């Protein structure tokens, strides 16, 4: 995998570090004590919504959801993922892939004669996560029971459309997926990486109880 390089000049080094991600962790005490507001109400894809209302939907299938997720993430995140990476997450942990939609005008339909435009659902936010299990496997030893292995949640992708930010969408998605990783999957910690220049994400995660663990140089490919 290609990584960024720098010339050794101070400005180049500073620029490289500023675009490096930081590894963050919510440790067990913070996760166990975290108070989360009542869970979100999730709807079906066919439910109607008023203009401006946010609808929250769980991932269901590739046909309806995968391509919109990829388009939204690629606009907001600097890491270029392949479709196989998305499939790895959403096929194994669909309950940890949560989506936010709003109604919008479908400009592909010509309804000028009626003076109206057909409404369509537009994806404006998503969070994609997985569960890691510390198997502590030792060569020659029997595999441990999955139920006894410590589990750590991992927030792989969080994206919110720029036009829909500052409405609490990202906070609601993250809080709901943390609840599920803790209460449904019995995770004892949660990990993630985010760029140090992403001030909004840093504030959100630190407010929830994440702590900075490590600066990851040469991690992203956003050169």
What brief labels describe this structure?
223 residues; alpha+beta; globular; seven-stranded mixed β-sheet; 7 strands
In short:
The chain is an alpha+beta fold and 223 residues long.
Rg, Cα atoms, Å: 20 Å
Q: Strand order of the main beta sheet, please?
A: 2-3-4-5-6-1-7
Overall average residue pLDDT: 79
**Helix proportion range:** 25-40%
Percent strand: 25-35%
Describe this structure in words.
30% of the residues lie in helices and 25% in strands. It has helices spanning 10-18, 28-33, 62-76, 83-92, 169-184, 199-208; strands spanning 21-26, 55-58, 97-105, 119-133, 151-160, 189-195, 211-215. Strands 2-3-4-5-6-1-7 form a seven-stranded mixed beta sheet, sandwiched between helices. Mean pLDDT is 79; it is low at 1-17, 108-112 and 136-140.
Question: Can you lay out the helices and strands and say which pair or pack?
Answer:
Blueprint: H1 10-18, E1 21-26, H2 28-33, E2 55-58, H3 62-76, H4 83-92, E3 97-105, E4 119-133, E5 151-160, H5 169-184, E6 189-195, H6 199-208, E7 211-215
Parallel strand pairs: 5-6
Antiparallel strand pairs: 1-6, 1-7, 2-3, 3-4, 4-5
């Amino acid at each position: 995998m290609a990584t960024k390089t720098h010339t050794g000049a101070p400005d180049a080094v500073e620029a490289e570090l500023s675009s490096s991600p930081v590894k963050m962790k919510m440790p067990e005490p913070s996760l166990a004590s975290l108070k989360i507001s009542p869970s979100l109400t999730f709807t079906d894809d066919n439910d109607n919504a008023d203009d401006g209302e946010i609808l929250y939907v769980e991932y269901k299938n590739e046909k309806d959801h995968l391509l919109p997720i990829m388009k939204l993430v690629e606009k907001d995140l600097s890491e270029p993922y392949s479709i196989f990476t998305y499939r790895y997450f959403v096929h194994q942990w669909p309950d940890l892939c949560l989506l936010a939609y709003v109604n919008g005008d479908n400009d592909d339909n010509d309804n000028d004669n009626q003076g109206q435009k057909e409404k369509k659902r537009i994806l404006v936010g998503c969070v994609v996560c997985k569960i890691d299990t510390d198997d502590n496997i030792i060569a020659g030893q029997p595999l441990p029971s999955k139920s006894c292995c410590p589990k750590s949640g991992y927030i792989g992708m969080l994206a919110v459309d720029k036009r829909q930010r500052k409405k609490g969408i990202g906070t609601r998605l993250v809080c709901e997926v943390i609840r599920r990783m803790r209460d449904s999957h019995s995770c004892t910690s949660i990990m993630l990486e985010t760029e140090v220049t992403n001030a909004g994400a840093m504030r959100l995660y630190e407010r929830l109880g994440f702590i900075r663990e490590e600066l990851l140089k040469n991690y992203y490919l956003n050169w």
